[in-house]
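Task: sequence design from structure.
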């Protein structure tokens, strides 16, 4: 995949919700488990799924950090 294609895919993923991305990963898993896909296509689809999982994990990490920050601010406010 070209660098332009990768950038476009990343932008498209950023517009999707985490739930939408998880649904797509589920579809990828089903496709791979079916065994109806050629080997080369399986590798390509697997790679796409792994990249999506990395993106999902990154987004979840960011949300967790924000929650920790908000919680810490609230605890500081309660102590004042």
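Answer:
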């Amino acid at each position: 995949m070209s660098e332009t294609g990768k950038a476009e895919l990343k932008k498209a993923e950023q517009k999707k919700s985490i739930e939408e991305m998880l649904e797509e990963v589920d579809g990828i898993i089903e496709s791979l488990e079916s065994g109806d896909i050629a080997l080369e296509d399986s590798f390509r689809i697997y790679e796409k799924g792994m990249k999506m999982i990395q993106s999902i994990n990154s987004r979840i990490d960011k949300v967790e950090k924000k929650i920790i920050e908000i919680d810490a601010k609230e605890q500081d406010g309660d102590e004042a």
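The chain has a mean pLDDT of 87.
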